[in-house]
Amino acid sequence: MAHAARGKLVAVIGDEDTCTGFLLGGIGEMNKARKPNFMVVEKDTSVHDIEERFNAFLNRSDIAIILINQNYAELIRHAIDNHSKPIPAILEIPSKDCPYDPNKDSILRRAKGMFSAEDFR
């Protein structure tokens, strides 16, 4: 089957519980280079490694959505803010230890600036 016919993937950058949940949901894939579409962030994972994997996901043509725990998104906020293409979409999600804060979500802040209350009536 052609790769394009299969559709695009969801990538995940998160803690072990987050990644495990999505993997149990069936999102786990390896590309031809044997690179997975997820990254489990451990307590000793460097910010450089998170940013490097994030950028690798941005440059993969088979990924349409990147889910990232918001606490890790905060560590690489500059990289997320610099991403302006619609695909892959970046969605910040809560983790078990850190609840979601909409005020920190750069995509949500950008979207709020595009719409007024009148647009939703």
Automatic annotation (TrEMBL):
Q: Which Pfam families match?
A: ATP-synt_F
- Per the record, what is one GO cellular component? proton-transporting V-type ATPase, V1 domain
Please give the Gene3D superfamilies that the UniProt record associates with this protein: ATPase, V1 complex, subunit F
Keyword ATP-binding among record annotations? no
Q: Name the residues that span the membrane.
A: none
Q: Which UniProt keywords apply?
A: Hydrogen ion transport, Ion transport, Transport
Q: Under the GO molecular function aspect, what terms does this record hold?
A: proton-transporting ATPase activity, rotational mechanism
In its keyword annotation, does this UniProt entry include Metal-binding?
no
This chain's function reads:
Subunit of the V1 complex of vacuolar(H+)-ATPase (V-ATPase), a multisubunit enzyme composed of a peripheral complex (V1) that hydrolyzes ATP and a membrane integral complex (V0) that translocates protons. V-ATPase is responsible for acidifying and maintaining the pH of intracellular compartments.
Assembly state and interactors?
V-ATPase is a heteromultimeric enzyme made up of two complexes: the ATP-hydrolytic V1 complex and the proton translocation V0 complex.
Protein name, per record: V-type proton ATPase subunit F
Q: What is the lineage of its organism?
A: Eukaryota, Metazoa, Echinodermata, Eleutherozoa, Echinozoa
